[in-house]
Amino acid sequence: MALQLGDTVPDFTQETSEGSISFHEWAGDSWVVLFSHPADYTPVCTTELGTVASLKPEFDKRNVKILALSVDSVDSHKGWINDINETQNTNVNYPIIADPDRKVADLYGMIHPNSLNNLTVRSVFIIDPNKKLRLSLTYPASTGRNFDEILRVIDSLQLTDYHQVATPANWKDGDDCVVVPSISTDEAKQKFPKGVTEVKPYLRMTPQPNK
Ligand code: BEZ
């Protein structure tokens, strides 16, 4: 069965462009974004990996490690990284898993045979420090992903974990947040000194607690 939110993600040991990694050990106490793409030396993927490299300081700030995957070999990845750095004006500064036998791709359900024959689709997994799956999404090969949205989801997940607020539709960093349903309005008023607005008994808003 496909991985579901809240599942403990599978562990694996695999070669990457930065040497062999044992995934759970490598992840340690960090959050992880694991993302796959169809193949090396393809145009959309080239822009995606360059974009993620440029955003690496943003992921670092949030205690997030980046791990990419494609079904090609380490040697292929290394040659392609040179092209990404040259064309995207960046420095790929995170490992890319080599998965020629599709071991990790099968473990994580990244092959969708009716979409791309034997190639990984554009999957993204956000994994928390307890190795629980917190988000998964799948994009078609022809659509490059929006990594600002991935950062936005990480901010939302971390606000929920660390401050017990949720985020409303189209929330952006700095906007008001939603008090989670498990907290009563009285409790919320104690917990959120910046104030709580009760729009409805089930819809309570508060300024973003960590701003
Ligand atoms: C790409 O990464 O550019 C790509 C890969 C497979 C199909 C279409 C585009």
Automatic annotation (TrEMBL):
Cellular component annotations (GO), alphabetically ordered: cytosol
GO molecular function per UniProt: peroxiredoxin activity
PROSITE patterns: THIOREDOXIN_2
GO biological process: cell redox homeostasis
Domain of life per record: Bacteria
Catalytic residues identified in the record: C45 (cysteine sulfenic acid (-soh) intermediate)
Keyword set, alphabetical order: Antioxidant, Oxidoreductase, Peroxidase, Redox-active center
InterPro entries reported for this sequence: AhpC/TSA, Peroxiredoxin_AhpC-typ, Peroxiredoxin_C, PRX_1cys, Thioredoxin-like_sf, Thioredoxin_domain
Domain Thioredoxin: 3-159
SUPFAM superfamilies registered for this protein in UniProt: Thioredoxin-like
Keyword Mitochondrion: no
Entry's family note: Belongs to the peroxiredoxin family. Prx6 subfamily. Belongs to the peroxiredoxin family. AhpC/Prx1 subfamily.
Protein name (Swiss-Prot/TrEMBL): Rehydrin
